[in-house]
């Protein structure tokens, strides 16, 4: 199974790649977690952000078009517990060879991205920095896998 995280934003600090890699290396070979960075649309301090968001939308939807399942990371999405994520992952492993997770830019995802998604997931109602979101997402994918394997990493 491939989980591709399509994230608006580039030039993350080194700790972001280190954190994601720490969890990616723990996953088994049959679960590939990839972070694909997408340049944000140009924003000016004065004008509306719609043009930038449309550019981001186009890039996200283009990359996600071949995915079997699309998940929108959105603050208005469902707040899954780790156990619920593990249940989702079980379904993905059975039904989806590829999962795309969409992470919007500074202004979030467009309505078209949310409509394309099969589910909307919120890591938290808090506003989190984009780099931290990537690390938390990688850790939660790893945690979900350990739950499915019955490993003691997760304790209820």
In the CATH hierarchy, what is the class? Answer: Alpha Beta
Number of helices: 5
Topology as H/E string?
Answer: EHEHEHEHEH
User: Which architecture per CATH?
Assistant: 3-Layer(aba) Sandwich
Identify the CATH homologous superfamily.
Answer: SPOUT methyltransferase, trefoil knot domain
Mean pLDDT: 94
DSSP, total strands: 5
**Strand order within the widest sheet?**
2-1-4-3-5
The share of residues in extended strands comes to 15-25%
Instruction: Give Rg in angstroms.
Output: 15 Å
Distance N terminus to C terminus?
26 Å
Overall shape: it is globular
Which regions are unreliable across 5 or more consecutive residues at pLDDT < 50?
none
The CATH topology is given as Alpha/beta knot
Look at the helices and sheets and give the structural class. Answer: alpha/beta
The biggest sheet, with number of strands, parallel, antiparallel or mixed sense and barrel status, is:
5 strands, parallel
The number of domains is 1
Helix content: 40-55%
Explain the overall architecture.
- By secondary structure, this protein is α/β, with parallel strands linked by helices.
- The chain has a single domain, classed as SPOUT methyltransferase, trefoil knot domain (Alpha/beta knot, 3-Layer(aba) Sandwich), CATH 3.40.1280.10.
- It is built from five helices and five strands.
- Strands 2-1-4-3-5 form a five-stranded parallel sheet, sandwiched between helices.
- Helix 1 packs parallel to helix 5 and helix 3 packs across helix 5.
- It is globular, with a radius of gyration of 15 Å.
- The two termini are 26 Å apart.
- The model has no long low-confidence stretch (mean pLDDT 94).
């Amino acid at each position: 199974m491939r989980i591709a995280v399509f994230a608006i934003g580039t030039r993350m600090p080194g700790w972001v790649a280190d954190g994601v890699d720490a969890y990616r290396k723990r996953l088994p070979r049959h679960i590939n977690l990839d972070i694909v960075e997408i340049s944000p649309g140009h924003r000016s301090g004065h004008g509306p952000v719609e043009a930038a968001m449309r550019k981001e939308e186009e890039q996200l939807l283009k990359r996600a078009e071949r995915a079997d399942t699309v998940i929108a990371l959105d603050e208005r999405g469902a707040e899954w517990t780790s156990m619920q994520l593990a249940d989702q992952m079980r379904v993905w492993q059975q039904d989806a060879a590829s999962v795309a997770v969409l992470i919007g830019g500074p202004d979030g995802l467009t309505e078209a991205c949310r409509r394309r998604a099969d589910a909307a997931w919120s890591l938290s109602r808090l506003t989190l920095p984009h780099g931290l979101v990537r690390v938390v997402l990688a850790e939660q994918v790893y945690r979900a896998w350990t739950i499915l394997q019955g490993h003691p990493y997760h304790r209820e």
